[in-house]
Amino acid sequence: MLGSKRRSLVVALTGVLMAVPALAAFPDKPIKLVVPYPAGGLTDILARSIAHSITQSSGQPVVVDNRSGANGAIGAVAVARAAPDGYTVLVSNTDTHAINPSIYKKLAYDPVKDFEPVSLFATVPFALVVGKSNPASADFKTFVAAAKAKPRTLTFASWGVGSASHLGMELVSTAVGVTLHHVPFSGQAPGIQAVQAGHVDAMMLQPGGADAAARSGTAKVLAVTSDKRLPLLPDAPTLRELGVDVVTGNWFSIHVPKGTKPDVISRINQLVKEALADPKVQETFRAQSAMPESSTPDQLGSYVLSEQRRWGAIARAVSASVD
Predict the structure, then answer these.
(1) Which helix H or strand E contains 143, and what residues bound it?
(2) Mean pLDDT of successive 10-residue segments in the chain (323 residues)?
(3) Which of 15, 100, 143, 297 could bond to 136 as cystine, CB 3.0-4.6 Å?
(4) Domain boundaries, given as residue ranges, for the chain
(5) 137 Cβ partners below 8 Å, 6+ apart?
(6) Where is the signal peptide (predicted)?
Protein backbone atom coordinates (compact mmCIF):
# COMPACT_ATOMS: atom_id res chain seq x y z
CA MET A 1 0.00 0.00 0.00
CA LEU A 2 2.78 2.42 1.01
CA GLY A 3 4.78 1.52 -2.09
CA SER A 4 1.75 2.21 -4.26
CA LYS A 5 1.35 5.70 -2.74
CA ARG A 6 5.03 6.44 -3.31
CA ARG A 7 4.75 5.39 -6.95
CA SER A 8 1.69 7.62 -7.38
CA LEU A 9 3.55 10.57 -5.82
CA VAL A 10 6.53 10.04 -8.13
CA VAL A 11 4.24 9.90 -11.16
CA ALA A 12 2.46 13.08 -10.04
CA LEU A 13 5.71 14.98 -9.45
CA THR A 14 7.08 13.82 -12.77
CA GLY A 15 3.97 15.14 -14.48
CA VAL A 16 4.37 18.54 -12.77
CA LEU A 17 8.05 18.79 -13.71
CA MET A 18 7.31 17.84 -17.30
CA ALA A 19 4.63 20.54 -17.42
CA VAL A 20 7.14 23.24 -16.35
CA PRO A 21 9.38 24.34 -19.26
CA ALA A 22 13.10 24.02 -18.64
CA LEU A 23 14.90 27.28 -17.91
CA ALA A 24 16.61 28.41 -21.09
CA ALA A 25 20.25 29.38 -20.94
CA PHE A 26 20.81 33.13 -21.08
CA PRO A 27 20.70 34.66 -23.61
CA ASP A 28 18.09 32.96 -25.76
CA LYS A 29 16.95 36.07 -27.65
CA PRO A 30 18.46 39.37 -28.84
CA ILE A 31 19.95 41.77 -26.29
CA LYS A 32 19.41 45.53 -26.56
CA LEU A 33 22.54 47.49 -25.65
CA VAL A 34 21.52 51.08 -24.93
CA VAL A 35 24.22 53.66 -25.69
CA PRO A 36 23.15 57.01 -24.18
CA TYR A 37 25.14 59.03 -26.72
CA PRO A 38 25.00 59.61 -30.50
CA ALA A 39 26.35 57.11 -33.00
CA GLY A 40 29.96 57.61 -34.02
CA GLY A 41 31.29 58.85 -30.68
CA LEU A 42 33.72 56.99 -28.44
CA THR A 43 31.03 55.37 -26.29
CA ASP A 44 29.32 54.10 -29.43
CA ILE A 45 32.57 52.83 -30.98
CA LEU A 46 33.55 50.84 -27.88
CA ALA A 47 30.01 49.54 -27.35
CA ARG A 48 29.62 48.31 -30.93
CA SER A 49 32.94 46.50 -30.71
CA ILE A 50 31.82 44.65 -27.57
CA ALA A 51 28.34 44.05 -29.02
CA HIS A 52 29.80 42.38 -32.11
CA SER A 53 32.03 40.13 -30.00
CA ILE A 54 29.20 39.07 -27.69
CA THR A 55 26.99 38.37 -30.70
CA GLN A 56 29.67 36.01 -32.02
CA SER A 57 30.25 34.24 -28.69
CA SER A 58 26.63 33.96 -27.49
CA GLY A 59 24.94 33.26 -30.81
CA GLN A 60 22.36 35.96 -30.09
CA PRO A 61 22.30 39.41 -31.72
CA VAL A 62 23.33 42.33 -29.50
CA VAL A 63 21.58 45.36 -30.97
CA VAL A 64 22.96 48.83 -30.20
CA ASP A 65 20.25 51.39 -29.45
CA ASN A 66 21.52 55.01 -29.38
CA ARG A 67 19.39 57.14 -27.05
CA SER A 68 21.27 60.37 -26.55
CA GLY A 69 20.52 63.50 -24.56
CA ALA A 70 20.79 65.10 -21.12
CA ASN A 71 24.36 63.96 -20.49
CA GLY A 72 23.35 60.33 -20.92
CA ALA A 73 20.29 60.58 -18.67
CA ILE A 74 17.73 59.81 -21.38
CA GLY A 75 19.29 56.45 -22.18
CA ALA A 76 19.81 55.69 -18.51
CA VAL A 77 16.14 56.29 -17.72
CA ALA A 78 15.08 54.01 -20.58
CA VAL A 79 17.08 51.13 -19.13
CA ALA A 80 16.08 51.83 -15.52
CA ARG A 81 12.43 51.42 -16.55
CA ALA A 82 13.01 48.29 -18.65
CA ALA A 83 12.18 44.75 -17.55
CA PRO A 84 14.90 43.36 -15.24
CA ASP A 85 15.56 40.31 -17.39
CA GLY A 86 19.03 41.09 -18.74
CA TYR A 87 17.83 41.81 -22.26
CA THR A 88 18.05 45.60 -21.93
CA VAL A 89 21.54 46.71 -20.91
CA LEU A 90 23.04 50.16 -20.37
CA VAL A 91 26.49 51.32 -21.41
CA SER A 92 27.10 53.50 -18.37
CA ASN A 93 30.00 55.84 -17.73
CA THR A 94 31.38 58.66 -15.62
CA ASP A 95 28.61 61.02 -16.73
CA THR A 96 25.60 58.75 -16.17
CA HIS A 97 26.63 57.19 -12.88
CA ALA A 98 29.14 59.48 -11.18
CA ILE A 99 28.46 63.07 -12.27
CA ASN A 100 24.75 63.38 -13.08
CA PRO A 101 23.56 62.86 -9.47
CA SER A 102 25.51 65.98 -8.49
CA ILE A 103 24.58 68.31 -11.33
CA TYR A 104 20.90 67.54 -12.00
CA LYS A 105 18.50 69.04 -9.48
CA LYS A 106 15.83 66.56 -10.58
CA LEU A 107 17.43 63.42 -12.00
CA ALA A 108 14.83 60.93 -13.26
CA TYR A 109 16.87 57.91 -12.16
CA ASP A 110 19.09 56.87 -9.28
CA PRO A 111 22.40 55.31 -10.41
CA VAL A 112 22.47 53.03 -7.36
CA LYS A 113 18.83 52.32 -6.50
CA ASP A 114 17.64 51.79 -10.08
CA PHE A 115 20.50 49.66 -11.41
CA GLU A 116 22.54 46.53 -10.78
CA PRO A 117 26.26 46.86 -11.56
CA VAL A 118 27.69 44.27 -13.95
CA SER A 119 31.24 45.14 -14.99
CA LEU A 120 33.64 47.93 -15.79
CA PHE A 121 34.98 47.53 -19.33
CA ALA A 122 37.26 50.47 -20.19
CA THR A 123 39.07 53.53 -18.91
CA VAL A 124 40.08 56.35 -21.27
CA PRO A 125 42.22 59.43 -20.48
CA PHE A 126 41.62 62.91 -21.89
CA ALA A 127 43.66 65.03 -24.27
CA LEU A 128 43.82 68.83 -24.10
CA VAL A 129 43.40 70.26 -27.60
CA VAL A 130 43.79 73.86 -28.79
CA GLY A 131 43.02 75.23 -32.24
CA LYS A 132 46.16 75.34 -34.39
CA SER A 133 45.63 78.99 -35.40
CA ASN A 134 45.36 80.05 -31.75
CA PRO A 135 48.45 81.93 -30.44
CA ALA A 136 48.17 79.88 -27.23
CA SER A 137 48.63 76.57 -29.09
CA ALA A 138 52.45 76.58 -28.99
CA ASP A 139 52.58 74.40 -25.88
CA PHE A 140 50.91 73.87 -22.51
CA LYS A 141 53.04 76.51 -20.78
CA THR A 142 52.01 79.13 -23.36
CA PHE A 143 48.34 78.18 -22.98
CA VAL A 144 48.48 78.54 -19.18
CA ALA A 145 50.34 81.86 -19.44
CA ALA A 146 47.71 83.24 -21.83
CA ALA A 147 44.92 82.13 -19.50
CA LYS A 148 46.58 83.78 -16.50
CA ALA A 149 47.17 87.01 -18.42
CA LYS A 150 43.47 87.36 -19.25
CA PRO A 151 41.28 85.50 -16.71
CA ARG A 152 37.92 84.23 -18.04
CA THR A 153 38.87 85.27 -21.57
CA LEU A 154 40.07 81.96 -23.00
CA THR A 155 37.19 79.61 -23.77
CA PHE A 156 36.83 75.84 -23.74
CA ALA A 157 34.26 73.53 -25.27
CA SER A 158 32.71 70.39 -23.77
CA TRP A 159 30.03 67.91 -24.74
CA GLY A 160 27.67 69.30 -22.09
CA VAL A 161 27.36 71.05 -18.74
CA GLY A 162 28.64 68.76 -16.02
CA SER A 163 30.05 66.23 -18.48
CA ALA A 164 33.39 64.57 -17.83
CA SER A 165 34.77 66.80 -20.58
CA HIS A 166 33.58 69.92 -18.72
CA LEU A 167 34.67 68.89 -15.23
CA GLY A 168 37.92 67.38 -16.51
CA MET A 169 38.96 70.78 -17.85
CA GLU A 170 37.84 72.48 -14.63
CA LEU A 171 39.99 70.05 -12.67
CA VAL A 172 43.07 70.94 -14.72
CA SER A 173 42.28 74.67 -14.64
CA THR A 174 42.06 74.60 -10.86
CA ALA A 175 45.33 72.69 -10.61
CA VAL A 176 47.23 75.33 -12.61
CA GLY A 177 45.40 78.32 -11.16
CA VAL A 178 43.53 79.67 -14.19
CA THR A 179 39.88 80.47 -14.92
CA LEU A 180 38.45 79.69 -18.36
CA HIS A 181 35.03 80.40 -19.84
CA HIS A 182 32.98 77.27 -20.49
CA VAL A 183 31.08 76.87 -23.79
CA PRO A 184 28.96 73.68 -23.73
CA PHE A 185 27.93 71.87 -26.92
CA SER A 186 25.51 69.02 -27.62
CA GLY A 187 28.29 66.52 -28.26
CA GLN A 188 32.00 65.99 -28.82
CA ALA A 189 31.84 66.50 -32.60
CA PRO A 190 30.37 70.04 -32.62
CA GLY A 191 32.67 71.01 -29.76
CA ILE A 192 35.91 70.03 -31.48
CA GLN A 193 34.67 71.51 -34.75
CA ALA A 194 34.28 74.86 -32.98
CA VAL A 195 37.84 74.56 -31.69
CA GLN A 196 39.18 73.69 -35.14
CA ALA A 197 37.34 76.65 -36.66
CA GLY A 198 38.77 79.02 -34.06
CA HIS A 199 35.41 79.86 -32.46
CA VAL A 200 36.45 78.29 -29.12
CA ASP A 201 40.00 78.11 -27.80
CA ALA A 202 40.34 74.62 -26.31
CA MET A 203 38.66 71.34 -25.41
CA MET A 204 39.28 68.31 -23.25
CA LEU A 205 38.28 65.27 -25.28
CA GLN A 206 39.01 61.62 -25.98
CA PRO A 207 42.45 60.77 -27.50
CA GLY A 208 40.91 59.30 -30.65
CA GLY A 209 39.10 62.53 -31.45
CA ALA A 210 42.15 64.57 -30.48
CA ASP A 211 44.34 62.54 -32.83
CA ALA A 212 41.93 63.02 -35.72
CA ALA A 213 41.81 66.77 -35.11
CA ALA A 214 45.61 67.01 -34.90
CA ARG A 215 46.13 64.99 -38.09
CA SER A 216 43.78 67.35 -39.93
CA GLY A 217 46.23 70.16 -39.21
CA THR A 218 43.58 72.32 -37.51
CA ALA A 219 44.36 71.54 -33.87
CA LYS A 220 47.24 70.67 -31.58
CA VAL A 221 47.34 68.32 -28.59
CA LEU A 222 49.08 70.09 -25.70
CA ALA A 223 48.88 67.36 -23.04
CA VAL A 224 47.21 64.12 -21.98
CA THR A 225 45.76 63.22 -18.58
CA SER A 226 47.11 59.66 -18.45
CA ASP A 227 49.85 58.50 -16.08
CA LYS A 228 52.18 57.86 -19.03
CA ARG A 229 52.41 58.92 -22.68
CA LEU A 230 49.95 57.37 -25.10
CA PRO A 231 51.10 55.35 -28.14
CA LEU A 232 48.37 57.12 -30.13
CA LEU A 233 49.76 60.56 -29.20
CA PRO A 234 53.46 59.92 -28.48
CA ASP A 235 54.48 63.59 -28.77
CA ALA A 236 51.93 64.83 -26.24
CA PRO A 237 53.40 65.07 -22.71
CA THR A 238 51.43 63.96 -19.66
CA LEU A 239 50.32 66.64 -17.24
CA ARG A 240 52.60 65.10 -14.64
CA GLU A 241 55.55 65.60 -16.97
CA LEU A 242 54.55 69.26 -17.06
CA GLY A 243 54.45 69.52 -13.28
CA VAL A 244 50.67 69.22 -12.89
CA ASP A 245 49.69 66.32 -10.65
CA VAL A 246 46.43 65.37 -12.42
CA VAL A 247 45.54 61.95 -13.79
CA THR A 248 41.93 61.64 -14.89
CA GLY A 249 39.63 60.55 -17.67
CA ASN A 250 36.42 58.73 -18.48
CA TRP A 251 35.37 55.18 -17.62
CA PHE A 252 32.81 52.90 -19.19
CA SER A 253 30.78 50.08 -17.67
CA ILE A 254 27.70 47.89 -17.96
CA HIS A 255 24.60 48.23 -15.78
CA VAL A 256 21.23 46.46 -15.90
CA PRO A 257 17.86 47.31 -14.29
CA LYS A 258 17.46 46.75 -10.56
CA GLY A 259 16.09 43.31 -9.78
CA THR A 260 17.93 41.47 -12.54
CA LYS A 261 18.74 37.95 -11.29
CA PRO A 262 22.28 37.26 -10.04
CA ASP A 263 22.82 34.39 -12.48
CA VAL A 264 21.92 36.64 -15.42
CA ILE A 265 24.27 39.36 -14.12
CA SER A 266 27.01 36.76 -13.76
CA ARG A 267 26.47 35.57 -17.34
CA ILE A 268 26.61 39.11 -18.78
CA ASN A 269 29.75 39.76 -16.72
CA GLN A 270 31.31 36.63 -18.25
CA LEU A 271 30.34 37.70 -21.77
CA VAL A 272 31.93 41.13 -21.22
CA LYS A 273 35.17 39.57 -19.97
CA GLU A 274 35.28 37.25 -22.97
CA ALA A 275 34.73 40.23 -25.28
CA LEU A 276 37.62 42.14 -23.70
CA ALA A 277 39.89 39.19 -24.50
CA ASP A 278 38.85 39.30 -28.18
CA PRO A 279 41.81 40.52 -30.32
CA LYS A 280 39.47 42.55 -32.54
CA VAL A 281 37.99 44.34 -29.51
CA GLN A 282 41.48 45.02 -28.18
CA GLU A 283 42.49 46.46 -31.54
CA THR A 284 39.50 48.82 -31.54
CA PHE A 285 40.27 49.88 -27.98
CA ARG A 286 43.93 50.56 -28.77
CA ALA A 287 42.94 52.82 -31.66
CA GLN A 288 41.04 54.95 -29.14
CA SER A 289 43.60 54.77 -26.29
CA ALA A 290 40.99 52.84 -24.31
CA MET A 291 42.35 50.47 -21.68
CA PRO A 292 40.28 47.24 -21.37
CA GLU A 293 39.43 46.73 -17.72
CA SER A 294 36.86 44.33 -16.28
CA SER A 295 35.57 44.03 -12.71
CA THR A 296 33.17 42.08 -10.56
CA PRO A 297 29.71 43.57 -9.98
CA ASP A 298 30.63 44.40 -6.37
CA GLN A 299 33.85 46.11 -7.44
CA LEU A 300 31.94 48.25 -9.93
CA GLY A 301 29.34 49.14 -7.30
CA SER A 302 32.02 50.35 -4.89
CA TYR A 303 33.85 52.20 -7.66
CA VAL A 304 30.71 54.09 -8.70
CA LEU A 305 30.19 55.30 -5.11
CA SER A 306 33.79 56.50 -4.82
CA GLU A 307 33.57 58.24 -8.21
CA GLN A 308 30.33 59.97 -7.19
CA ARG A 309 32.14 61.48 -4.22
CA ARG A 310 35.15 62.54 -6.31
CA TRP A 311 33.29 64.12 -9.24
CA GLY A 312 30.59 65.51 -6.96
CA ALA A 313 33.23 67.53 -5.12
CA ILE A 314 34.52 68.94 -8.42
CA ALA A 315 31.00 69.81 -9.61
CA ARG A 316 30.22 71.64 -6.36
CA ALA A 317 33.53 73.53 -6.49
CA VAL A 318 32.64 75.05 -9.88
CA SER A 319 28.88 75.28 -9.19
CA ALA A 320 28.01 73.05 -12.16
CA SER A 321 24.27 72.34 -12.23
CA VAL A 322 21.39 71.67 -14.63
CA ASP A 323 17.74 72.45 -13.85
Answers:
(1) helix 140-149
(2) 48 46 75 95 95 97 96 97 98 97 94 98 97 94 96 94 94 96 91 96 95 95 97 97 96 98 98 98 96 97 97 92 85
(3) 143
(4) 31-124+250-317, 127-224
(5) 130, 131, 143, 219, 220, 222
(6) 1-24
CATH number belonging to the domain at 31-124+250-317, selected among 3.40.190.150, 3.40.50.300, 3.40.50.2300, 1.10.10.10: 3.40.190.150
Name the residue type at position 62. V
pLDDT digits 0-9 by tens, 195-222: 999 999 999 999 999 999 999 999 999 9
CATH number, span 127-224: 3.40.190.10
Please give the pLDDT value at position 102: 94
3-state secondary structure of 251: strand
- CA 215 centroid distance within chain: 25
pLDDT of 96-105, one tens digit each? 999 999 999 8
Exposure letters 44-59 (e unless 16+ CB within 10 A, then b): bbbbbbbbbbbbeebe
The beta strands (E) that lie in the chain are given as: 31-35, 62-66, 88-93, 115-125, 127-131, 155-158, 181-184, 202-205, 219-224, 249-257, 291-292
Task: Tell me which amino acid residue 68 is.
Answer: S
